Task: inverse folding
């Protein structure tokens, strides 16, 4: 049984690869002569399937709408085009809201941040760029939810 548990565990390097992608994980470890910490693409996909929920929870804890590299590459289809391996942050929020992958807590936090930022814009308390970005993320959330049929009606 211990052997089976060990087989299912991820190494730190494999975890980083699923979270950040193979290029960044290998760069972090200064192992530029390797292509991956997994023996095959199938092994990487299997590890993602087994650890998906915990890795998504870890990403969500960092920021609402944040997802591991493996989500975008293996589920959302962003690995097909090299120039667009990961979507922009706005596109990511729209995609997650439209596909039902954004939790209610994430949506609530994005709405809260957008409302607070909207109130600061044009005042002495405005945070240059950051407030307008938070408002744009809130708009991306609402656009994704409307596309899904769950958006707020104006």
Result:
């Amino acid at each position: 049984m211990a052997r089976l548990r060990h087989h299912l565990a991820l190494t730190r390097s494999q975890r980083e690869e699923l979270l950040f992608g193979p290029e960044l994980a290998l760069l972090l470890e200064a192992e530029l002569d390797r292509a991956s910490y997994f023996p095959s693409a199938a092994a990487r996909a299997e590890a993602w399937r087994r650890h998906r929920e915990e890795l998504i929870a870890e990403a969500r804890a960092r920021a609402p709408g944040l997802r591991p590299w493996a989500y975008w590459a293996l589920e959302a289809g962003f690995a097909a085009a090299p120039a667009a391996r990961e979507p922009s942050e706005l596109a990511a929020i729209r995609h997650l809201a439209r596909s039902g992958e954004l939790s209610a807590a994430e949506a609530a936090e994005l709405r809260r941040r957008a409302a607070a930022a909207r109130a600061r814009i044009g005042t002495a308390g405005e945070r240059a760029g950051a407030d307008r970005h938070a408002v744009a993320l809130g708009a991306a959330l609402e656009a994704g939810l409307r596309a899904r049929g769950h958006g707020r009606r104006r």
Observations:
- The chain has a mean pLDDT of 83.
- Residues 65 and 92 are 7 Å apart (CA to CA).
- The radius of gyration is 18 Å.
- The longest helix spans residues 41-62.
